[in-house]
């Protein structure tokens, strides 16, 4: 086939570049394994119910610790911690860095300590996100709820 210009030839080549060859075997997608993300709030003094959720209550001066685990083991990779506060009828970001990325240890665990949270009439929620990698799909833990009291 002859073209009037090199530009016309390039345009045709570009338009068919993404087309599959008829009768060619379809490309096999890489199989990704599932991941699982779990979390737990530790150090609270009691639990209450709020809007059908279990809320962990912390004293303002106590250690508010979130621990989490990603499986299979993803040592050295990171998981993101998302923290929100229920404010004026809506969930809004409660931290400057959202998500806050934490490097997983040799056992694929991570932890953060919420410091500086003062007693307030607000409910917070937190969950952990693992984005996945070449061999593993991402996962998200369920929401955990907490409140800081006097």
Distance between the termini: 82 Å
Judging from the principal axes of the Cα atoms, what is the shape?
elongated
Number of strands: 11
CATH class: Mainly Beta
Q: What's the average pLDDT?
A: 83
How many domains in all? 1
Radius of gyration from the alpha-carbon trace, in angstroms? 24 Å
| Named CATH topology | Immunoglobulin-like
In terms of DSSP E residues, the strand content is 35-45%
User: Helical proportion?
Assistant: under 10%
N-to-C order of helices and strands: HEEEEEEEEEEE
Structure classification: mainly beta
Biggest beta-sheet profile: 8 strands, mixed
Description:
The chain is mostly beta strands. It has one domain: Immunoglobulin-like, CATH 2.60.40. The chain contains one helix and eleven strands. Strands 2, 3, 5, 6, 7, 9, 10 and 11 form an eight-stranded mixed β-sheet that branches. Strands 1-4-8 form a three-stranded antiparallel β-sheet, with no helix packed on it. Mean pLDDT is 83; it is low at 1-5 and 7-28.
Summarize the structure.
This protein has 150 residues and is mainly β. It has one helix at 6-16, and strands spanning 36-42, 46-50, 53-59, 64-71, 78-87, 90-93, 100-103, 109-114, 123-130, 139-140, 144-149.
